[in-house]
Amino acid sequence: MKTLVLNIPDTVDLDDNEALLAIASTLYEKGKLTLGQAAELVGISKQAFMEILGTYGVSVFNYSASELDQDVAHAKNYTI
């Protein structure tokens, strides 16, 4: 695992854990980390990380609008 040193000004009201959560959620959203990797980076369970993602405005489902439209179209055409 790589080590990253991040200097945050004292005037910024952000503790270490909040910074780590922000970084992990952004990397997850961009597809650089899986859900499990992001949760591991923060040191919490996948379920806890999924719950926290919403506070950062990140969806657990990394679908684009077009991918979602395709899935809906396929589901409408599916017959049993």
**What's the total helix number?**
4
The main β sheet shows up as:
none
Helix content: 40-55%
Q: What would you call the quaternary organization?
A: single chain
Q: What is the average per-residue confidence, as pLDDT, rounded to a whole number? A: 89
- Unreliable sequence segments: none
Radius of gyration from the alpha-carbon trace, in angstroms: 17 Å
Secondary structural class: mainly alpha
Question: What is the rounded distance between the termini?
Answer: 47 Å
Total domain count? 1
SSE pattern: HHHH
**Beta strand count:** 0
Given the C-alpha coordinates, what overall shape results? elongated
Q: What share of the residues does DSSP label as strand, in percent?
A: under 5%
Write the layout of secondary structure elements.
Elements lengths: L15 H14 L5 H8 L3 H8 L11 H13 L3
Account of the 3D structure:
α1 runs antiparallel to α2 and α2 packs across α3. This protein is elongated. By secondary structure, it is mainly α. The chain has one domain. The longest helix is centred in the first third of the chain and has 14 residues. It has four helices and no strands. The mean pLDDT is 89.
What's this, in brief?
With 80 residues, the chain is mainly α.
